[in-house]
Request: fold
Amino acid sequence: MIKLITKSFLLGKDNEPDGRQDALSVNDPSAIYAVADGVSNSFHPEMVARDLCQTFTSLSKEGEEFKDWNSFSRDYLLPSVAQNWNIGVHNYMTSLQGRLLRHEKFNYERWKFGASTFCGVTIDLGKGILRYYIIGDSTLFVMEKSGELKEYNTSPKMESSDSDLVTVYSNSTCAITSQNHIVGEWLIGEILLAGVKSIALMTDGMAMWYQKLSLSGEDPFAILWNIQGNEAFRDLAMIERTRNNEMDDDLAVILIKLEESSTETRTLDAKIIRKSFIYPYTKRFVKPWKIKRKALHRKRIRLKHRSYKTWLN
Amino acid sequence: MEYKLPWGSTHPGLLVYLVDLSGSMAWDDKIKRVSNIIWNVLDCLIAPCQDMGVYKERFHLEIVGYNQYTYELFSGGVNKVLDAIDATESNQQFIDIEKEGKAQGLTHMAMAYEKAAEIIRKWIKEQTAKNIPIPAPVVINITDGYPEEVGVPEADSRNKALRAARELLNISVPDGRVLLFNIHIDGEAGSEPELMFPDSRPTDNKKGFLFDASTELNDIFVTRAQRAGLPAKPNSHFMVSNLTDAGLLTKLIVFGSSVSGLTKPNGRCEVPIP
Reply:
C-alpha cells in the first residue's frame, strides 16, 4: 500500500510569506494539490493564481470535472476566473485613493487582464494513478524508482547533454487569463504510481533551480525535504539568490513522497501525514484532517507497537 | 545575452537624465514643458514599481542639468522620486526652474556625457562591491541644441562631445553596454523636419553627431519600439531631432527609460499577447 507524505513551501520574491504572485494549495484528505504562478505582465495576477489553486483543490475527486477537464475549463473554470478577477479588481480599485489609485489605473490600462500558469495533480491511491493538469511553465517533476526524473509542463523542451528532454525556461509562457481565455493548451495526463518514488509540483522560479541541480547529479528533492521550517527555506532562497543568482522569483513548491505502508488496516491504507505549514489557502482543509487524525489516534491505541512507531515516523 | 537583466529591488536599474539648461531652453517655456514632462514620465515609470501597495526600489534616478556647468538636479531611488512627485503634485514641475534648473548659458554637452560616465562608473563600483548584478544603465539626453562651448569652434565642440559620448557608450556591464538616447527638441514647430530613429547617418553635421552619439537599437528594442508605435527599423539609432510634440516627447522618454529592464518587472513570465 502506498502512503503519501507531503511538504510545501511558499515565498515571495522579496521574502513575502504569502508568495506574492505565486500560490499553492494542499488538500491532503482528497490528495489534490496545486501550484500557480501569476504572470508579471498582467494586472494583479495573484488573484488568478490563488483562485485557480483554491478552485482546483476544492473540487471533488470523483466529480465530472476531472473526467473532461477541457470542457470543465472552457465552461466553468475560465468564466469563473474571469468573474472573480473582475470582482476582485473592482473591489480593490474602489478601496484606493490618491497616488496609489492613479498608479494602479496606469497599470490597469497598461495590462487590462490578469494571468497565471497552473500545475495541479490529483492522486488516486485506490487505483494507483496520478493525474495532472498543467498550463504554462509551472512544472510537475516525477522521480521514478528507476532514478529517471521526468518534467511535465507546456514550455518548449530541448535535449540536454544526456539526451534527455528538459524544459527551456524563458520569459514567455502559456497561461490562463482573466479574459475567459487560455493562451496555449492544457497538458493533461496520468501516471501510474507503482513506479513513482516522489513527486514535486513547483512554479518556474523553483523549477529552474530544481532542474539545474538534477542535471548536475544532485538530489534537489532531498535538499528541500530536509529543510525544517519556513525560515530555513527562506535561508536557502537567500543563499541561492545572492550567491548563485538562482530562485530570483516567487517560489511555490509541494513535495510528495510515496512510501510503501507496512500496515494493512483500512484507516492506514491511504495514510496521509502532513508536514506542511498553515497557509491562508489551506486553512479550510485543516479541520477535516484534524477530525481524521482524532479517529486515527483512537485506532492507534489498538495498533501493534511496530505500526505505532511507523505512524509516528 | 544582452539587456536581459530586469530592474528589480534586488538588482535595481540606473536611469540618468541629462537636461539641457542652456539659455535657449528658457525660450517658449521649453524648460518648463520638459520639467512637466519629466514629472509625468516619472509618475508613469514608478507605477509598475508598486507591488501590493509597496513601492519597490527597482531603479535609481539621476537628473543632471547642464549648460557650461553641470548641476545635480535629482538623485535617488523610487521612494525619493515618489516624495518629489508628491511634493510637486500641485504644479507638476519636477525641476525647480527658478533655482538650480534655471536655463542660461551655452551647451557643454561633452561635460554632460562625462558627468553621466562618472555617475555610472561610481554606480558600477558601488553595486559590484555589494555583489549586486547590474542592469545596463540608461542615459537619456534631452536638448534643444547641439554642442557649443565658449571660444571653441562648433566642429571642435561636436567632436569633443562625440568623444565623450563614445566613452560613455563604451562603459559596459555583463548585461550590456550603456544605452544612450539623444532627444533633440525644437521650440518652433515646422521650422525643420522631424527625424526619428534614422537607420543611416544623416548628412547634416549636427544630426550626424546625434546619430553617432546614440545607441543602435538591437532587434528586440526595434520590435518594442514598433509595438509602442515608434518608427524604428533595423539599424535604427535612438535619436530624435526637431521634436515639437509634447505627447511624443513623453512617449519617447518613457520608452527609452523602460525599453530595457522595466518592461517586465521581474523579468519572468510574459504571456505572448495573441
